[in-house]
């Protein structure tokens, strides 16, 4: 990495939910350091804690014990240095695409204490809608846009707010294969070309998607991080250029092995190792 300074530090993170008769342990002994500008993909089976871990980074869930630091400071709720893209788009249905993005830019600048006019916020929104190839659709309401277009608005909204960290929770999971591939390539292009390359933490259950996107892949089993794997495929990447390579196939086989072989023993034994 060009910049080796850590932006996210997770130290001995545990998260439990208490009910009247029991305690459910969602995360246990999570340790992970993420460098500035890294693209991290978190993979694992459903219910393993991927989205729960992301929710702690968002500031929506508070750790039972351990620490999560951003730029050396413990997380205290949501912060303007972080933006989130969900699978469900989360756009205001009564606002146009342009208004959705401009509103987010204006409110984020206010929270940072930066002065910005509504006109300037709208101009910034226009720029980012163009970057996600939605020029001509600025005045459409979300209900008038396809799912892929709505997700492009959500990405434009997040990027236009200029966060240091972009948190993405299966953002392409509900889209068909072609649209998904287009948005993967668009996200990589925006991340690669950004002057201040953002740190991205991306949750997915799709191994191919993780291989395409990641600098490192964090493989989770219930409660634990089992392995952190370097993805050394050369960039820039797209599916035709990587899928036939030996490195791609070897990494895919390793991830599949974790899914179907080693994880069974680890889950049964309630243990994990890096």
Low-pLDDT residue spans: 270-274
User: What is the 3D shape?
Assistant: globular
Beta content comes to 15-25%
Structural class: alpha/beta
Radius of gyration: 19 Å
Short account of what is shown:
By secondary structure, the chain is of the alpha/beta class. The chain has helices at residues 50-58, 97-112, 118-131, 147-160, 177-193, 207-213, 239-242, 246-269; strands spanning 6-18, 23-35, 39-44, 65-70, 73-74, 82-85, 165-169, 199-203, 216-221, 224-230.
Overview of the molecule:
By secondary structure, the protein is α/β, with parallel strands linked by helices. The protein has 8 helices and 10 strands. The model is unreliable at 270-274 (pLDDT under 50).
Topology:
Layout: E1 6-18, E2 23-35, E3 39-44, H1 50-58, E4 65-70, E5 73-74, E6 82-85, H2 97-112, H3 118-131, H4 147-160, E7 165-169, H5 177-193, E8 199-203, H6 207-213, E9 216-221, E10 224-230, H7 239-242, H8 246-269
Parallel strand pairs: 3-8, 3-9, 6-7, 7-8
Antiparallel strand pairs: 1-2, 1-4, 4-5, 9-10
What are the defining features of this structure?
alpha/beta, 274 residues, 24% strand, 8 helices, six-stranded mixed sheet, four-stranded antiparallel sheet
